[in-house]
Amino acid sequence: MNRPLGITVSRHILDSQHIHPKATGDLSSLLIELIVAAKTISAEVNKAGLSDVLGMSGKTNIQGEDVQKLDDIANNIIKRRMARCGHLCVMTSEEEADVIPVAEGHEGKYSLAFDPLDGSSNIDVNVSIGTIFSVHRRITSGGQGDENDLLIKGSEQVAAGYIIYGSSTMMVFSTGEGVHGFTLDPSVGEFYLSHPDIRMPKKSRYFSVNEGYTRYWSENVRRYLDYLKEEDKATGRPYSGRYIGSLVADFHRNLINGGIFLYPRDTKNPAKPVGKLRLLYEASPLAFLAERAGGRAITDDGLNILEIQPEGLHQRVPLIIGSSYDVGIAEEFLAGER
Ligand code: AHG
Ligand code: MN
Ligand code: MN
User: Fold this and answer.
1) 210 Cβ below 6 A of ligand 1
2) Residue with the nearest Cα to atom 16 of ligand 1?
């Protein structure tokens, strides 16, 4: 870690703000408040086995999934802190059916979408999980915001990122210019710049997909996976498989080392026609990071994730994201051109 420089995340955010002459500091304050929430969640996650917060909460969320106690805890930490940060007009969470209002008198000019804990199935087994966030500028004016402030294309995000609770806790985010990574020093309670200006390798040797679902994929997706597993030294195949089952962790590894992640649509199940991952809480913020780091993110029918106009808070999308060369080859297979 780059400790000698000792650039804290707050310092970095404030320095970046000064590059923009028109910046008011609102986005900086919003992010700094979110970082406090992230540190609080990190502390809860780190002691999870000791504090009776493992296991199910007994609730089911809007996605029809069982809510774990830590999902609930993380959701409340972000909701309570950010409702009073003074820079948001409305929020939405993967765990809640409706928009989340901010505290009266604390309305501001941004909206926030978040996945409080991504990778829930890994909570109880000490595998990396994360928090994902996406910030847009509001489009309504004055007072509380509404759904319209959240149903905005990913290309319009003013900031997006994640916090990964792994072997160390890291925060990775972008406010549009570059993707930067910060590592939490738990002894100090500060995130320090450890990965400045991350660039995703253009070509990789890794694929991340849940191959248990092969039978549900389209013929084109299956042919692409077969291609990756063929032997061809010139193109570095076969690729190796790496699948954690926490999107944040799979994405983080691919961001640093290169790789392609796929969660294609289920072609056999009419109830799951568009895959599993959610546009606002997962696909769009990670697509923003991927593009800013030189990677790409598309659907399995070739749409740019960042250009999709969201129609619902909990809309799902097929997601293919990662190194630009690899997404390009996948795109050709998906279009039936190979
Ligand atoms: P969440 O825990 O926020 O509901 O998200 C879980 C997601 C994502 O993190 C992961 O990539 C995917 O679910 C794994 O799904 P499968 O178990 O179907 O592979
Ligand atoms: Mn998730
Ligand atoms: Mn989640």
Assistant:
1) yes
2) 245
247 lines ligand 1 (CB under 6 A): yes
Give the pairing type, strands 169-174 and 107-118. unpaired
In a domain, 26, yes or no: yes
pTM of the full predicted structure? 0.96
Q: What is the pLDDT of residues 314-335, one digit of tens each?
A: 999 999 999 999 999 999 999 9
Q: Going by CA atoms, what residue is nearest to atom 11 of ligand 1? A: 247
Q: pLDDT tens digits, residue range 69-123? A: 999 999 999 999 999 999 999 999 999 999 999 999 999 999 999 999 999 889 8
Ligand 1 centroid, distance to 118 Cα (angstroms): 7
Residue 201 alpha carbon to ligand 2 centre in Å: 24
Q: What is the residue range of 231's domain? A: 206-334
Helix or strand run (H / E) with residue 129: strand 129-137
The total number of structural domains in the chain stands at 2
- The DSSP bridge pattern shows strands 169-174 and 159-165 to be antiparallel
Instruction: Count how many residues are written for the chain.
Output: 338
Residues 321 and 212 occupy one common structural domain: yes
**Rounded to an integer, what distance in angstroms lies between the CA atom of residue 205 and that of residue 200?**
13
Q: 195, 214, 238: which is the final residue of a domain?
A: 195
Structure confidence at residue 4 (pLDDT): 53
Q: How far apart are CA 144 and CA 261, in angstroms?
A: 37
* Ligand 1 pocket, residue 118 CB under 6 Å: yes
Statement: residue 3 has pLDDT above 80: no
Interatomic CA distance for residues 40 and 310, integer angstroms: 30
- Nearest ligand to the CA of 121 is 1
Helix (H) or strand (E) holding 172: strand 169-174
